[in-house]
Amino acid sequence: MNFFGNLQHIRHLLLFFAVGLITASLPTQAFSQNAAESPAPPPRFGGHVGVVIPLVTRGNGTTTTIADDFIIGFPFGLIVRTNSPVAFDFEFVPTVNRSSDQDFRFLVHPGIIYNFKKKYAVGLRGAYEVGTGNYGFTPLVSRSFKLKGRTNFFVEADFPVRWERQANSPRFASVGFAAHSGINF
Asked: What is the pLDDT of residues 64-98, one digit of tens each?
């Protein structure tokens, strides 16, 4: 993929960021006239750190499992919360793959997360892998568990969909399942 093709994908991700941020910042409920009735707003900014391991991937006619190709990622991100259940998450994921010709990769992974009551959440992330031109999206389902104060432990099921290109071959789609856990604050 050439430099200008990479810029095209970066522009699409920036547009995804902008639309998501605008959508996430729209209030979903009217403000109460009585301050005593309204609960204290959550902190506007937070973050998360964790570990992600792709368990199975199907693409280009083959299925790859964790036993075939061990990859580990270390996601970290900044969470921008709104007055609604919607949050915007700027996530970045450096990954290590010892069996690949490219040992280290960096994924730009912004997304919109919808938080339900009882600590469940669903979300959708855009994805762009720097240096390879691979791109796609990742639906997710998450459950968090209270630790202390505003800190939570979370487990997350990710379902990455990517359009990838390997050397000297046309672009192909892949789908996968990954386990992600960590701490958010």
From this structure: 999 998 999 999 999 999 889 999 999 999 999 87
Gyration radius of the chain's alpha carbons: 18
Tokens of 146: 């209270």
**pLDDT band, very low/low/confident/very high, at 53 (cuts 50, 70, 90):** very high
Asked whether 64 and 57 are in contact (CB, 8 A), the reply is yes
| Residue 53 burial (10 A CB sphere; 0-12, 13-18, 19+) | middle
Within a domain: residue 37? no
Nearest residue to 142 (alpha-carbon basis) of 63, 92, 100, 85: 85
- CATH number for the domain including 137? 2.40.160.20
Residues in the chain: 185
